Amino acid sequence: MTLNLDDAKNTAEVLTTALPYIQRFVDKLIVVKYGGNAMTDPELESSFARDIVLLKTVGIHPVVVHGGGPQVDNLLKELGRQSDRIDGMRVTDKSTMDIVEMVLGGSVNKSIVSLINKHGGRAIGLTGKDANLIQAKKLMMEKIGTDGVAVPVDLGFVGDVVSVNKDVINMLIASDFIPVIAPLGVDKEGNTYNINADLVAGKVAEFLQAEKLMLLTNIKGVLGRDGEVVTGLTPKKVDGLIEDGTISGGMIPKIQCALDAVRSGVKSAVIVDGRVPHATLLEIFTNEGVGTLISREIDAALSQS
Ligand SMILES: Nc1ncnc2c1ncn2[C@@H]1O[C@H](COP(=O)(O)OP(=O)(O)O)[C@@H](O)[C@H]1O
Ligand SMILES: CC(=O)N[C@@H](CCC(=O)OP(=O)(O)O)C(=O)O
Predict the structure, then answer these.
(1) For 83, phi and psi rounded to 5 degrees?
(2) What EC number(s) would the UniProt record show (predicted)?
């Protein structure tokens, strides 16, 4: 086979374009939240796995936290059951918890691990229960009633993250593994909790002081009142958009986690369209990125207003 010089030049150009980004992120930790809605197409799943392997190969350290809400819904449906959601959180009774654990800690976790390993990575799957990775407590939620008074809402075995055992993750990274974490947590009494995966990803990024938190989902970014992608988000703006119903459902915990993460020291958080092939690479290796960026600079400057 003869070398096509034009093709080779293009390839070389693409590779050298990536160089400053590789230099910027080398040895840094990037937490990638892979949402259940982004796991819809085998080709996209493969491109995600290859992106993760590529990052690791060039010396960047990805930590994957995955969701799987739609996959849990599917099994519940097959079993003739259903569960309610309140502000994006699944109301989780004991038997729903068993199903959530089976799906997230079982089939979803293992299929991501297998795919990354198939592409040459060294992924290791774990839930927040392994080595007490994610210490949790019952999530307390309140809703404002029509009379303006806050009333407590019981979501069952839904957890909030108390702490993340960063030593376990750092040890895995030091041994060249790619941690793939299912969003389950455990409390001091040994109770298992179902935790929103965005929340887990945000806390993992925070405890590890990651360079970037990337939330992959099935939409081009945070959409405003006219359906446009919103930029320059401030806590105040976000509150307004939630209050008038522009931001709803699963986007509520997602945007709140992104804001919390940057306030707690993560350099930037981005909500990325996981339906774009190689979204992870495009986000890291281009200036434009492919989603709604929340950076510490924007947050600090705009939250004054
Ligand atoms: N203002 C908004 N901008 C973008 N998405 C929104 C907004 N409000 C609600 N959503 C919904 O949030 C969804 C993303 O949350 P979720 O379904 O939990 O995703 P994932 O499974 O990737 O975590 C979008 O697909 C969209 O339907
Ligand atoms: C409490 C709660 O809602 N937990 C989620 C955990 C999975 C998740 O967050 O999945 P996605 O990221 O794909 O939405 C659930 O049971 O669906």
Answers:
(1) -135, 150
(2) 2.7.2.8
Nearest CA to 274 out of 205, 198, 183, 202 is that of 198
Predicted pLDDT at 300: 54
- For the segment(s) 28-303, the CATH number from 3.40.50.2000, 3.30.70.360, 3.40.1160.10, 1.10.3720.10 is 3.40.1160.10
Strand partners, 156: 92
Q: Exposed/middle/buried for 43, CB within 10 Å: 0-12, 13-18, 19+?
A: exposed
Q: Closest ligand 2 atom to the C-alpha of 37?
A: 13
| Distant-in-sequence, close-in-space partners of 228: CB < 8 Å, separation ≥ 6 | none
Q: Among positive and negative, which fits the CA dihedral 205, 206, 212, 215?
A: positive
Where is the binding site, in residues?
68-69, 90, 194
Domain ranges for the chain: 28-303
User: Which residues in the chain belong to E strands, given as ranges?
Assistant: 29-34, 61-66, 85-86, 89-90, 123-127, 134-138, 141-144, 150-153, 159-164, 178-182, 184-186, 192-194, 212-217, 268-273, 291-295
257 φψ region: left (φ > 0), alpha (ψ -120 to 50), beta (else): alpha
Q: Is 69 in the pocket of ligand 2 (CB under 6 A)?
A: yes
Q: What is the DSSP string of 193-229?
A: EE--HHHHHHHHHHHTT-SEEEEEESSSS-B-TTSPB
Cα–Cα dist 70/72, whole Å: 5
Residues of the chain with pLDDT under 70: 1, 288-290, 296-305
Max alpha carbon distance in the chain (Å)?
A: 76
What is the 276 CA–ligand 2 centroid distance (Å)? 21
In whole angstroms, give the CA distance from residue 47 to residue 50: 5
User: Which tokens sit at 300?
Assistant: 């600090």
In the prediction, which pLDDT does 305 show?
38
Interface ipTM? 0.95
Report residue 261 as tokens: 């993460």
Q: How far does the centroid of ligand 1 lie from the alpha carbon of residue 219, in Å?
A: 7
